[in-house]
Amino acid sequence: MNKKWIAALIAVVVVGGLAWLLSQTTKKEPVDGYKEVHVTIVDQDGKTVLDENFETDAPTLTKFLESTPKLKATMEQGEYGSLLTEIYGLKQDMDKGPWLVYESETNTSCKEAGGYCPAMDDVTLDASDAFTFKQITSFG
Hints:
alpha+beta
């Protein structure tokens, strides 16, 4: 009976070790270097107010927004990291709306999160990423 428990314990340790190793090898680190990022900004009426490509060497979405003056992005630190409060003159009111949301069908961090982008600080930029920022009045 002891041999079975020892074998089971060894199997658990091996599987746990392999899972940890896999998570470490697939973990994506921010990459420095030139990237082109496409940004589309849509107001609460559905009108596109900006649709443009930008060059950047920023490793994350937060750093890109901070370093791109034309976007006029303002952020504050929230419970989950940087929170976008304004972009290109579109503001959000966290209590009653409108709200600012963003999405990407090309960014690896967003695709790996099941189609929903994680917090801006955790979105690593890849070459040829495209993001859409929307000002919305409801989450329906």
